[in-house]
Write a structure and sequence with these properties.
By secondary structure, the protein is mainly β. It is 13% helix and 36% strand. It has one domain (10-75). The mean pLDDT is 79. The chain has helices spanning 64-69, 72-75; strands at 10-17, 37-45, 50-59. A hairpin with a 4-residue loop joins strand 2 and strand 3 (50-59).
C-alpha cells in the first residue's frame, strides 16, 4: 500500500464473542479467554487514524500474527 510504505502503522485486534458454539468445527472457534469467538483486526495509520486494511472472520483460536498474515498489506 503506497499510503504507508516506509512508514509506521498500528495493528489492533479484538475478539467478537459468539452466542453459542458453532455446530461445524466448533472447537476451532474456542479462544484463550474460554469463549467462542471470531477475530476482527484493523490496520491503521496512527497519525491520522486512517484505516488502511482490515480482516474479519478469522477463528478465535487463531493467533494475531496468523490473522495479520491474511490482510492485503501483509500479502503485498
Amino acid at each position: 500500500c503506497l499510503l504507508w510504505r516506509n512508514g509506521v502503522f498500528v495493528v489492533d485486534g479484538s475478539a467478537i464473542n459468539l452466542f453459542a458454539k458453532p455446530g461445524l468445527y466448533g472447537e476451532t472457534f474456542y479462544d484463550q479467554k474460554l469463549n467462542y469467538s471470531l477475530n476482527c483486526q484493523l490496520v491503521i495509520m496512527p497519525h491520522n487514524l486512517l484505516i488502511v486494511d482490515y480482516t474479519l472472520g478469522q477463528l478465535g483460536s487463531f493467533h494475531n500474527m496468523y490473522t495479520f498474515q491474511n490482510t492485503c498489506i501483509a500479502k503485498n
